[in-house]
Write a structure and sequence with these properties.
The complex is a heterodimer. Chain A is globular. Chain A has two domains: 21-114, no CATH class; 125-299, no CATH class. In chain A, helix 9 packs antiparallel against helix 10 (262-270). In chain A, strands 1-5-4-3-2-6-7-8 form an eight-stranded mixed beta barrel. Chain A has helices at residues 32-36, 125-140, 153-163, 166-176, 186-205, 208-223, 225-228, 231-241, 247-256, 262-270, 276-299, and strands spanning 21-28, 40-47, 51-56, 64-69, 78-81, 93-97, 100-103, 106-114. Chain A is an alpha+beta fold. Chain A is built from eleven helices and eight strands. Chain B is elongated and about 115 Å long. In chain B, the strands form ten sheets. Chain B has a six-stranded mixed β-sheet with strand order 13-18-17-16-14-15, sandwiched between helices. Chain B has a five-stranded parallel β-sheet with strand order 6-5-4-19-20, with helices on both faces. By secondary structure, chain B is of the alpha/beta class. Chain B has 33 helices and 36 strands. Chain B folds into five domains: 2-88, Alpha-Beta Plaits, CATH 3.30.70; 101-302 and 477-515, Rossmann fold (3-Layer(aba) Sandwich); 307-449, Succinyl-CoA synthetase domains (Rossmann fold); 550-766, Enterococcus faecalis V583 domain (Enterococcus faecalis V583 fold); 768-937, Alpha-Beta Complex (v583 fold), CATH 3.90.1700.10. In chain B, helix 5 (120-132) packs parallel to helix 19. The chains are: A alpha+beta, B alpha/beta. The A-B interface holds A 24-26, 29, 32, 74, 80-82, 109-115, 118-124, 126-127, 247, 251, 254, 258-261 and B 110-111, 174-177, 183-186, 242-245, 383, 416, 418, 471, 473-476, 480, 482, 485-487, 503-507. Chain A: This is DUF2877 domain-containing protein. Chain A: InterPro entries: AllH-like.
Chain lengths: 300, 938
């Protein structure tokens, strides 16, 4: 997560009503229900120079909404702005709904929508098998590495997906949830990358078993994500469960299926956050590898 | 009270200026304000309005304000300044914006789409550059000749990119609205549109029904006509077939040419995805019916289209249609079957003013003129349109209602549009209009109110598809477009209002700081840009230039190696005769005569030179260059430089040193004395040295010197030091008795290397000569009166203009009054990417030429805009080892109005004064425009 350094400290409470500045931006369609619904109260969870997180008082996901700007990652629950994001503090009141996100003296309307779970189009096993090593090489030779040590839960998850073993995969997933450093713990990013890849690449390659696996893993993960990890990460896991990913992840997936150049996309992804990009990339590689493995098993 | 001003050289786009004019006219006390570019049409407008307009060209800004009192006029003028400076400061200018699409593509994504909205005569050139560079382009501008459109689209197909336009006002790429477009949800319907408002109506209805759009690809109004043959349409079909997000394709257009329709039909039959056509015309489905077919084809429910009907009784009377969208107007006219319809977006109404979707003035006037019957209008929302059209229209609608006119409005827009659909509909309804989101329904209602019988909805266009053809298992069918798969990003050239819409959508956006090319070159520019030989020719020429490997191989007597009989002198710059020669040139020629013993004294020399007994020719014609006056005579000794790569040879005189020297026009006894010593001692000594040391790699020395703070024209200290270091041992070995003399002479002159550098540059540039079709400059030179250039594709022809006086710092008590116009062949260094072009490598030079370090860097950065390549070997550490800008392209200079920057010494006007200062100068633009005109004829 490219979110900058330290969060701002608390500001004293303002008594006068400040003037509202109207801004506009682009948003993922996953946020459309939240924005079209009647106005609901929300609060600022965290504020960084390039991203501000709001938690909305609602029962349905996505519950956390990210306002991002500049080079920050285009999350699947993000509204992208062009101006600076200063003047927000954790704990500030906010409102989301009726077409507007109101926080920090700003009212944001959406002027462009994008689909965070776009279809990838058909891809053959051969094409995937050729692309995967390229991604693998870029990842292992990069200074950005996943936040967790290899082996343990991540190895179990990888093996479980390969074999199509639900038990192993779900056990490992539950161990990984909330595990590791970061605003979005490493384990969660790895899971997110894996969930999205199993679903979207599985569909593109016509490997039904991978999509089936994605459904079960998604159900397991979303069941208690709220209690096992940070609110921000929990929402992102819910997005991943639905196949919704950040634009950097999508770029790599499109690269793997031959729709755009893979290498620049891979490098861009790896640069995200401290380890987020590398964690997501781990999830993508594991997912593609599993799709190939399950696809072969299906063929036998 | 009137205020009329012409501001030369200021450019703003027409839409921004229109807003400024409107803002000023709206001020209290201001009767009329015209702020526009001084085109013939706008000047006429101002004159007709009673202003006294002085002479102006279309590159100047015309300001004409009429106010009731002086105070109002003064306030308005102040407001004007605020408005104009606000326009130019819309982004923080830490770094200069790119001036060309070429430069912008280096900063932007490879899949970026270029949005061109510059005046029509320049649009082709810009679009060509985009397509040539491998980018899809949307051409908002119209007035592009159809032959050019065809050429562009053919090239685009080769490059695998799409041309949307010309005259394309609407596109949606990956959800980003370009031009006039509505905010629609992403989805599975792809649209190919030869009609902008047609696409807007269709996609707005789909969005209202909850069905999303993947992309809207505009193809330009003429694409489905006979000449263009549907080129972009067919390509767009291929692209949408290859796009995973698109599941169904709609083609919207007015009826195509029959042959084209047949070709289109074949393509549709082959299409693996279902295609619905909405080819509006007699007996065809209208847009609403087409939208309903699409909904059925994707399995969505057909809703009742939102409307705000009134309960007016049909009152009969004429039907008056006042439209801003052409297709909507045509559709309404066909459906209503009666009445008088005007399309205010048509060319006759939009020459010199903005489109009615932005500027409602003409329509309001027309509405006010309707006194009975029914008025039917369209109001189109979305990006780029009026922020509050209902607000602009409400008073006029209410007034019309009170006159007994029934008003029906077709409101084209979505819930997501910035204008707020519901609020706009409510406002229009309150003013007394009946509002329909379907133009077809609005037209029917209007016709009914007018007592006529509208035509019934035509047959729904069914989904036409191949049926059997399906995607091949490995990959996809169709030809994919890069701009459709990646996150949308845009390079914009032209009207800033379109750029504002991109910022509102948080679309990655690289604006180009476009200025119109020099007046009068548009036609020549287009001709040269369209020449298919140009690009490969330039590539070849610049490759030769960059690949040259100059070596100093010897020192020879001029009379022995050059075609230089006694009584002939070579000189710097383009050819010149004695009559027109300036002080330093005359002085140097007199000195040359004395040195060669052709005259006993200065008067005799002058007499002979004036009488024409002496032959003069340009050094450049003889593989030679000379600094300042650059006079070469047979007894002078020349550095001989050989190009190991391309095999050429070039020569330059030996540098005399500083102070009173021949090249500055001094011809006193000490000058002649020194010349003799150089010919008798220095030259032969150096010749011996070169025999011992062998070929000296000059390219290597130049590259090193660049990284030590030299720029190799006006600052040569490091290069001279390096050269001495290379030669010193050989000097001691070869001429032990004269070693000290030679070394002292060389060391006393920081610019000794200049001459070797000039010869190296000359041999490199000469290698690039005579490539047919190339627009690259191979020589820049001045003779103290004229500044001339030569171009690779134009043989030995010179293109000249008056040489300017350099602007900089003066030594001692000298001032600009003492300066001679620019003189010397040393601009051969800029010709190959050194000198002024490399100033960023030599920031210390600003102590001599003025300015600060940032200016030095800015000078180099600007030169990248007008050059073809970056030198692979001459690199600038301060710019991250970026290669120096090399290979000046005449077309780029005339397009951007950026002239090459030359860093040079200033010679004294009076012969023999010597150097009076140092500064920067540029060649005259007329040299480049003349060269361009010549290229257009070749």
């Amino acid at each position: 997560m490219a979110v900058g350094t330290r969060p701002r400290s608390r500001r004293p409470v303002q008594t006068a009503q400040p003037e509202v500045t109207y801004l506009s931006g682009a948003a993922a369609t996953s946020l459309r229900p939240l924005l079209e619904a009647p106005r609901r109260p929300a609060r600022v969870l965290a504020a960084f120079p390039l991203a501000v997180y709001l938690e909305v008082r609602t029962e349905t996901e996505p519950r956390v909404l990210a306002l991002v700007t500049g080079e920050a990652t285009r999350l699947p629950n993000a509204v992208v702005l062009t101006g600076p994001l200063d003047g927000f503090s954790p704990g500030d009141d906010a409102w989301v709904g009726d077409g507007v996100v109101e926080a920090g003296g700003r009212a944001v309307r959406v002027r462009r929508w994008w689909d965070p779970a776009p279809p990838l189009g058909a891809v053959s096993g051969t094409a995937l098998a050729t692309a995967l090593p390229v991604l693998h090489d870029i990842c292992v030779s990069s200074p950005r590495q996943p936040g967790l040590e290899s082996g343990g839960a991540s190895a179990l998850l990888s093996a479980g997906c390969h074999r199509g073993s639900l038990v192993d995969a779900i056990t490992a997933a539950e161990q990984l949830m909330g595990l590791g450093p970061g605003l979005t713990p490493s384990g969660d990013d790895m899971l997110a990358g894996l969930l999205v890849t199993l679903r979207s690449v599985g569909t593109a390659a016509g490997v039904g078993r991978a999509v089936w696996l994605a459904d079960w893993l998604a159900a397991a993960v979303t069941f208690d994500a709220r209690t096992r990890t940070t609110p921000i990460s929990a929402t992102l896991l819910h997005c991943a469960a639905r196949g919704e990913a950040g634009l950097e992840t999508l770029a790599v997936l499109r690269g793997l299926t031959g729709r755009q150049p893979l290498e620049p996309a891979a490098h861009r992804l790896l640069r995200l956050g401290h380890t987020s990009g590398a964690d997501l990339a781990w999830g993508i590689r594991t997912g593609v590898s599993a799709v190939l493995g399950l696809g072969e098993r299906d063929a036998e | 009270m009137n205020l009329v001003e012409i501001r030369p050289g200021i450019y703003h786009d027409s839409v921004s200026l229109m807003r400024v004019s409107q803002a000023l006219t709206g001020r209290p006390g201001v009767e009329l304000a015209i702020v526009a570019m001084a085109t013939a049409l706008n000047v006429e407008l101002a004159v007709d309005a009673g202003f006294d307009v002085p002479a102006a060209t279309s590159g100047d800004l015309l300001v004409a304000i009429r106010a009731a009192t002086d105070a109002d006029l003064h306030d308005a003028a102040a407001d004007l300044e605020r408005q104009l400076s606000a326009r130019t400061e819309t982004r923080s200018r830490e770094e200069a914006l790119p001036r060309t699409i070429r430069a912008a593509t280096r900063l932007a994504d490879p899949s970026a789409v270029v949005l061109v909205s510059v005046p029509g005569e320049h649009a082709f050139t810009e679009a060509m550059e985009a397509v040539d560079g491998g980018h899809s382009v949307m051409i908002f501008s119209d007035n592009v000749p159809v032959a050019r459109e065809v050429a562009l689209k053919d090239l685009a197909r080769e490059r695998g990119v799409l041309v949307m336009g010309p005259d394309c006002g609407t596109a949606i790429v990956g959800g980003a609205g370009l031009g006039f477009a509505n905010v629609v949800r992403p989805g599975k319907v792809g649209v190919v549109a030869a009609s902008g408002t047609g696409a807007q109506q269709l996609t707005a209805l789909l969005d209202l029904a909850g069905v999303g759009v993947s992309h809207v690809l505009g193809v330009g109004g003429r694409d489905l006509g006979a000449e263009v043959g549907g080129r972009s349409t067919l390509q767009a079909l291929d692209a949408l077939n290859a796009d995973p997000a698109t599941e169904l394709i709609v083609v919207v257009s007015k009826p195509p040419d029959p042959d084209v329709a047949a070709r289109l039909g074949e393509a549709i039959a082959r299409s693996p995805k279902p295609v619905i056509t909405a080819l509006l015309g007699e007996g065809q489905a209208d847009l609403t019916t087409a939208a309903e077919s699409v909904l059925r084809a994707v399995g969505a429910e057909v809703p009742v289209w939102p409307s705000w009907p009134g309960n007016t009784e049909p009152g009969g009377g004429p039907l008056r249609g006042l439209y801003s969208g052409g297709t909507l107007c045509t559709e309404a006219r066909l459906i209503a079957g009666t009445g008088e319809f005007t399309d205010f977006g048509d060319d006759e109404y939009t020459v010199g003013r903005a489109h009615p979707m932005i500027d409602p003035a003409l329509r309001l006037e027309a509405l006010d003129a309707v006194t009975e019957g029914v008025a039917l209008l369209d109001v189109v929302l979305g990006h780029g349109s009026d922020p509050d059209p209902a607000g602009s229209l409400s008073a006029a609608i209410a007034a019309a209602k009170s006159r007994g006119v029934a008003v029906v409005v077709a409101l084209v827009g979505t819930e997501g549009d910035p204008q707020n659909l519901q609020a706009q509909a409510a406002r229009l309804f309150e003013s007394g209009a009946e509002v329909y989101t379907s133009n077809a329904q609005a037209a029917r209602k209007a016709a009914t109110l007018a007592g006529a019988r509208p035509t019934e909805p035509g047959p729904g266009g069914g989904a036409e598809t191949s049926g059997e053809a399906s995607a091949s298992p490995d990959g996809w069918v169709g030809r994919p477009l890069a701009m459709l798969s990646a996150e949308p990003s845009v390079i914009s050239v032209g009207a800033s209002i379109l750029a504002e819409a991109l910022d509102q959508q948080a679309v990655a956006h690289t604006p180009v700081d476009w200025r119109p090319p020099v007046t009068g070159v548009a036609a020549d520019l287009a001709a040269v840009m369209a020449d298919p030989r140009r690009k490969p020719a330039n590539e070849k020429a610049v490759a030769r230039l960059l690949g040259a490997r100059p070596h100093l191989v010897g020192v020879k007597r001029a009379g022995d190696v050059l075609d230089l009989p006694k009584g002939t002198f070579f000189h710097a710059g383009p050819p010149i005769e004695w009559e027109r020669a300036s002080g330093p040139m005359r002085g140097a020629l007199i000195g040359g005569m004395l040195f060669e013993g052709l005259a006993a004294d200065a008067e005799e020399a002058e007499r002979k030179l004036a009488s024409g007994e002496v032959k003069l020719d340009s050094c450049h014609h003889h593989r030679t260059v000379g600094p300042m006056a650059g006079v070469v005579s047979p007894s002078m000794w020349m550095l001989e430089v050989h190009d190991a790569e391309n095999g050429g040879t070039a020569f330059c005189s030996l540098n005399e040193g500083l102070g009173k020297v021949l090249r500055y026009g001094a011809y006193g006894p000490e000058v002649i004395e020194r010349l003799r010593w150089m010919g008798d001692v220095l030259g032969p000594a150096l010749a011996e040295v070169m025999k011992v040391v062998g070929p000296l790699d000059l390219r290597n020395l130049v590259a090193q010197a660049l990284q030590m703070g030299d720029e190799l024209h006006n600052r040569n200290r490091a290069a001279t030091s390096l050269m001495v270091r290379e030669l010193a041992p050989a000097i001691v070995d070869a001429v032990p008795n004269q070693a000290a003399e030679v070394l002292r002479f060389v060391n006393g002159n920081d610019h000794f290397f200049l001459n070797a550098g000039m010869a190296a540059a000359k041999v490199s540039a000469d290698a690039a000569r005579n490539v047919e079709g190339s627009s690259m400059v191979v020589a820049m030179a001045r003779n103290g009166t004229d500044f001339g250039i030569q171009v690779s594709g134009l043989g030995d022809r010179w293109f000249t203009g008056p040489a300017g006086v350099p602007d900089g710092l003066y030594l001692g008590a000298y001032s600009p009054a003492d300066a001679n116009p620019d003189i010397g062949d040393s601009t051969i260094t800029e010709t190959v990417g050194l000198g002024g072009f490399s100033m960023a490598a030599a920031p210390a030079i600003v102590r001599f030429v003025g300015g600060d370090v940032a200016d030095a860097v800015a000078a180099t950065t600007a030169m990248y805009e007008i050059t073809l390549a970056e030198h692979p070997v001459y690199q600038i550490p301060g710019l991250g080892f970026r290669g120096t800008p090399a290979g000046i392209d005449v077309t780029l200079v005339t397009r951007t109005s950026v002239l090459p920057v030359v860093n040079t010494g200033i010679a004294g006007r009076v012969a023999g004064t010597g150097q009076v200062g140092a500064g920067l100068v540029s060649p005259p633009m007329e040299a480049f425009t003349a060269a361009l005109a010549a290229l257009a004829q070749v």
